[in-house]
Write a structure and sequence with these properties.
The chain has one helix spanning 3-23; strands at residues 49-50, 56-57, 93-98, 101-103, 106-109, 114-120, 127-131, 141-143, 150-155, 161-167, 178-183. The chain is α+β, with helices and mostly antiparallel strands. β1 and β2 (56-57) form a beta hairpin. The protein binds copper (II) ion (CU).
Length: 184
């Protein structure tokens, strides 16, 4: 075999290898995975876990109570501060509380569904996000000036209807810090 033949053989082997790799998918770009919450885990460190059957549970494994006192052991717990919100489940509803209002003004959830609220601010005020209905007294998130976001995981009410939320700092509702959660 002369030199030319050897080079052609090497080239042929390389071409075959490239074709095989391409066909087996070794060259395809890595799949972009969407961050979605999986039951049986916590959505963010510190937040209440959700059982595999979709029930938000306390640290003792009992169903958390939405009508408990905020931060009591029976209540759904808010997460530790989250500086990198890109790691948060894309199922979370992004709630922004500022002196110009709360966004979104409304959102919808399914009755009883696992619901994640990612509560954040962005101004120099303290805010306290909560619901008007006493059946949701435990779902309250306080946030100070410049604080990172926090995630609150809870089961939406099983009773369909409209649940108002607002900022419980005096004077803030008057600035438009309110909205409604529609349970359907
Ligand atoms: Cu406020």
């Amino acid at each position: 075999m002369d030199k030319k033949t050897i080079i052609w053989i090497i080239l042929g082997v390389v071409v075959v290898a490239v074709v095989v790799l391409a066909l087996t998918g070794s060259f395809s770009a890595p799949q972009k995975t969407e961050q979605t919450y999986k039951p049986g885990n916590v959505a963010a460190p510190g937040a209440s876990a959700v059982s595999t059957s979709g029930i938000v549970v306390t640290s003792e494994g009992k169903a958390a109570r939405n009508d408990a006192a905020p931060m009591s052991p029976e209540a759904p717990q808010e997460s530790l501060p989250i500086t990198d919100t890109s790691s948060v489940t894309s199922d979370a509803i992004d709630i922004k509380v500022t002196s110009t209002g709360i966004t979104p003004k409304e959102f919808s959830v399914r009755a009883g569904a696992v619901t994640h609220l990612l509560v954040s601010t962005g101004d120099q005020y303290t805010h306290l996000f909560k619901f008007q209905d006493p059946s949701l007294s435990a779902i309250a998130v306080g946030i100070g000036p410049g604080d990172p976001a926090r995630l609150m995981t809870f089961n939406a009410p099983t009773t369909k209807g409209t649940y108002q939320y607002f900022c419980d700092v005096p004077g803030h509702v008057g600035r438009g810090e309110s909205g409604k959660m529609i349970v359907n």
